[in-house]
Predict the 3D structure of the following.
Amino acid sequence: MSFQKRLLSGEFVVLAEMNTPKGVDTTQLIQNARRIKGRVDAVIVPDMDDGVMRMSALAGAVLMHQQGMEALIHVYCRDRNRMALQADLLAAYALGIQGLIVVSGEEICNGDHRDAKAVDDLDELGLLGAVRALEQGTDLGGSDLEGTPSFTIGCAVPQCADDKSLDCALELAAKKVEAGAKFILSPPVFDIRRFESFMGKVKGLNVPVISTVYLLKSVGAARYIATNEPGAGISEELIRRIRKASDREMECVRIAAETIVALKALAQGVRIITLGWEHRLPDVLEYAGL
Amino acid sequence: MITAERKPIEDLINSVSSCRRILLLGCNECVTVCSAGGRKEVALLSSALQMHFMKEGKPFEIKEITLERQCDPEYVEELVPHIDSADAVLSMACGCGVQEVARRFKDKVVLPAVNTKFMGASERQGVWAERCAGCGDCVLGMTGGVCPIARCSKQLLNGPCGGSTKGKCEVDPDIDCAWQLIWDRLKALGMTEKYEENIPAKDWRTGRGAGPRKIVREDLAS
């Protein structure tokens, strides 16, 4: 059953992020994907995540498709104007990619091509408008299309440090839902109680919420997020648990899996982010009983 | 200078239609020079608005003030005795002036009366043209004093693109091909070797690449 059908039927969906290589050697990407084939509903391919130049998400998604795996791609406005965005959306559909996640791209100055110029011709709502126009058979220039695409679109809610900024983010999310987003991706969950409160606020959007589980890689990574993302809710207890473990890497895998298990009763799915540790995805899935 | 054009009168009428008392604010700098928002334009717009609302039989008061510089807090402070008597400010300054007035008077609605266009120069009476894109890393020394970023439609750092005809840009025959201008000027200056140099891909961090910009002069900052 496709990701879209499972989502619509209210079943718990499992998504795993797979980053494309910085280069043309796709061996690792394909190997990692094969190891989780049949165990996830779809793969999400981010597009130059964190502002780091790498193979495009569209190419990565097509590679997943060739492996018989459904793929969703990130789309955002930093690197492409409205023409390029529409062209890539048409290309994506023609190549079998129907899942989109409209995200806000990382600032150029935080990436690895800091001297580049951002495009930002459209914003996220403008991009959702472009998708809707294409689905209705015209482009943003008003011309008719030969064949219309159809997408399942999600959007992300960022990590918010306080209720005020979360309210603001949810206001924007509501606009995105109105503009065509069919599901919401939560920020990474490290504290189930905090997520329960998030779910309480987000349920008014009346769309499925897919939670996010981020595989911590070390005490340093946990500490970094705890310091720089006050809204993440990483506790000292969690950091201590990793620090005291005899096999810290495996402890991080267990933490991610336990979080997924707890989220099963709360959200309609999970997105697992491993940021370069895609080889640990099978372990996460196994410990989570998926 | 920063150039601007007054918004259409219908838009301005709409923007102030819910107000009874307006402070119409001009600026004595760039928008005066480009005849968009100086004392004279303030008087003209004031008359037009008053005539409109008088015809509609709607009570409408307008106070006209033209500051020396609306982008300068020192001059904006002069509005303190007047600001409370207005429901809203209609500013004829560039976007910098509008924002400075809004920053100073946080509880006051400040509306723009002009569209800020570009940094440009006067070509002849009544004609202003874009000259500078404010990229923050000037290349005019390499291009014979003609800016390829502001004046080439494709912002080519190494042109021309091949689309120009008789020195004119393919975008519009009224636009000079910047790279033709650059070549002609380098030739006239005996500096054609400059054209042989490839200008490397630009570091846009000095432009808007790293977000909104700020200049801090430690020797002057208080």
User: Anything to note?
Assistant: The CA atoms of residues 133 and 139 of chain A lie 6 Å apart. Chain A has one domain: 3-287. DSSP finds eleven helices and eight strands in chain A.
